[in-house]
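Q: I have 423 residues here and want to know how they pack in 3D. Can you give me a structure?
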Amino acid sequence: MAKRRRRERVEPSRKEQTMTRVERERARRLTIIVGVVLGIAVVVLVAGVLFQLVVKPNSTVARVNDTRISAKDLDKESRFVQLQTIAQLEQLIQLQQSFGSSDTGGFFSSQISQLQNDLVSNEGLANRVMESMIDTKLVQQLAAERGITASDDEVQKRLESFIATQQGFVTAPDATATAEALAAATPTPTLTPSPTPTTTLTSTVTVTPTEVLPTPTVHVQTADDFSSGLDQVLTSIASGSGLSADEVRNIYVTSITDQILREQLTEQLGDEMPLAGEQVHARHILISVPQDASPEDEQQALSKAISITQQLNDGADFATLAAEFSDDTSNAASGGDLGFFGKGQMVAEFEDAAFSLGVNEISEPVRTQFGYHIIQVLETSPGSPDFTSWLENQKAAARIVRSLTSDLVPNLPAVPSNLLTAQ
C-alpha cells in the first residue's frame, strides 16, 4: 500500500505577510469609518426628531414681560382659529348664494374677501393669532396685579350658556332671569267693581271665552344636555383641527376667562380708560385769517374775536352774532351750529378746546389754520371706556418681544381652494 505523501507546510513570504497586514488594517479602518458614519447619521436623525418633537414645539415665539408663548401653544391656537374662520367663510358663502343679486351693498362680498385674506397665508394668520395671545397674556398679568380673578363658577356658567345657545336651549339661570323680567314687565290687573246684583228668581250667566295664545315652549338645559352638547362641540372641532378634545376645551376656557377679566378690569378702571364714542354738540363763530395775512391783519382779526367774545359774555345772543359776523358760511345762518362731532373730526386745536368746555361754556378765541374760533358747547354725549385703546397703551409700556421666525410658523391644514376663490 502506497504511503501518503506528507504535505509540507509552506510559510508565507514576507511580501505576502505584509499584504495581509495591510488588508486587515484597511478592513479595520473601513469598519471604523462605516461605524462613525452610521453613528453620525443616527445622531443627526435623533437630533432632527428631538428638534421636531421637543425643541421646536417648546421654542419661544413671543414673550410678554416674564411670560413666554411657545410655538406649541401658537400652533394649537392657530389651528383652532383657522377652523373657526373656515366655518365663518362657508356660512357667509351660503348666505351670499341665498341672497343672490340682492346683495347690492356688497356686504357679503367684502366680508368674504376679508376672511379669505385671513386664510391665504399661514404666516399672516399665525402673526394675528400671536398678537391676540399677547393681549390675553397681558390681560392676565394686569388683572393679577389688581387682584382680579375669574372664578371657576363664572367660567362654568358662561360655558354652559354657550353650549345652550349652540343647541337652542337656555340655562336655568337664564330662564329664571327671563321669567322674572317678564313678570316685572307685566302690569298687575286691577279689580273693577261689579254692579250690585238685584234680586231675581233666576239669573243667567254668560261666559265669553277669552282667546289664550300658546306660550312658546323653552327647553331648559339639563346637566346631561350640557355634557352631551359640550362633547359634541369639542369632538367636532377636535376632528377638524387635529387637536384633542381637552386642548379645545382649554382654548374655550381661556377665551371665556379673558372676556371676564376684561369686563372686570373695565369696571374697576373705567375712569382711567380713554373714552370711545364721546361727542359734543357745539357751535362756533369764525373770524377767518388769510394764510398770507400781515401782522396787522392778524391783530385786527384777534381784536374782532375778542370783542365778540366780550359781547357774548355780556349776554348777547350767540346765534345772532354768528349770523352777523361768522366767516363760516356753511353754518353762519344756522347760528354757527356744527351738530354733534367726535374726536378726530375737527382740527386738533378746535377739538381740544371743544372737548374741554362745559355745557353752555364759551371759549376764548381759539387759533387754528382757518382763523379765530369762538366756541360754545351746547350738549355732551359721554362715551364708554375704550378697553382696546387702554390695552394698546399698556402694551406700549410692557416688555414684549416677538420672535416668530419662518421655521416656527405652524404647519396648518390646507384650506380648500374653492373657499379661497369664491366671490
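Q: Anything worth noting?
A: The two ends are 109 Å apart (CA to CA). The longest helix spans residues 14-55.
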